[in-house]
Amino acid sequence: MTIIYGIFLFSLFIVFYNYIGYGILLWVLVRIKRMLVRTTPAPALPYEPPVTLVVAAYNEEDMIAAKIENTLALDYPAHKLQLLFITDGSTDATPDIIRRYPRIQLLHSPRRGGKTAALNRAMEYVQTPYVIFCDANTMLNGAAVRNIVKHYADETVGGVAGEKKVTGNDSSGAAATEGIYWKYESYLKKLDAALYSVVGAAGELFSIRAALFEPVEEDVILDDFIISLRINLKGYRIAYAPDAYAMETPSDNITEEHKRKIRICAGGFQSIVKLRALLNIFRYPVVSFQYISHRVLRWTLSPLCLLLLLATNILLAVFSGAWPFYAFLLVQLIGYAAAFTGYRLAERNIKINIFYIPFYFLFMNIAVYQGFYRYLTNTQSAAWEKAKRKNNGYGKTITINN
Question: Which of 121, 135, 156, 241 is deepest in the core (most CB within 10 A)?
Answer without folding.
Answer: 241
